[in-house]
């Protein structure tokens, strides 16, 4: 999110557990530096979404925007992720871009370093594609580590999402984005409220 009014309305009406801001300059949802004064004061857990950013860049955004959580949405190594955790102590979501299969061995070294895994659909643009991956690939998820589901989540998938929640208790949250927008970065608050009601009631 990047509009103060839209974010305030969403917080008031939906009370999300987290709210994301994209700090990847190639994204249509990129949050410019000028937004920092307004967004920093929002009373919500703020997730900074980064794609192969440097430690310095991430630390500057943490300071400017009052981030509580870092979402690493690129090809960040275990060593980089460990250093970020050591230097900031903040909550970390590490994203894995899913293609036709998942090699759980690749995720394993991240276990001691991250708070949540986040699964998104593979795309050359890294994220925000609105594309859904094959959720069957998660059925043999081998870890206790909680994970978040992402990638084109929409209101039409509520029944399937509920089935997945029943099968996989490690599924800790749903990361919604482009399917709940009026335009890039402007969220449809009523649609999100409806989605939350349908999924959690
Ligand atoms: O939204 C973007 O533009 C974006 C760009 C680069 C990396 C991540 C991005 N967004 C994240 O992508 C996922 C899935 O979004 P969608 O539902 O498929 O639109 C989500 O984590 C967004 O935060």
TrEMBL record:
Residues 4-195 form the N-(5'phosphoribosyl) anthranilate isomerase (PRAI) domain. GO terms for biological process: L-tryptophan biosynthetic process. GO terms for molecular function: phosphoribosylanthranilate isomerase activity. InterPro entries: Aldolase_TIM, PRAI_dom, RibuloseP-bd_barrel, TrpF_fam. It is an enzyme of class 5 (isomerase). Its EC number is 5.3.1.24. The keyword Isomerase applies. It holds the Pfam family PRAI. It catalyses: N-(5-phospho-beta-D-ribosyl)anthranilate = 1-(2-carboxyphenylamino)-1-deoxy-D-ribulose 5-phosphate. Gene3D superfamilies: Aldolase class I. Keywords: Amino-acid biosynthesis, Aromatic amino acid biosynthesis, Isomerase, Tryptophan biosynthesis. Pathway: Amino-acid biosynthesis; L-tryptophan biosynthesis; L-tryptophan from chorismate: step 3/5. Belongs to the TrpF family. HAMAP family: PRAI (MF_00135). This is N-(5'-phosphoribosyl)anthranilate isomerase. The lineage of its organism: Bacteria, Pseudomonadati, Bacteroidota, Cytophagia, Cytophagales. The gene is trpF.
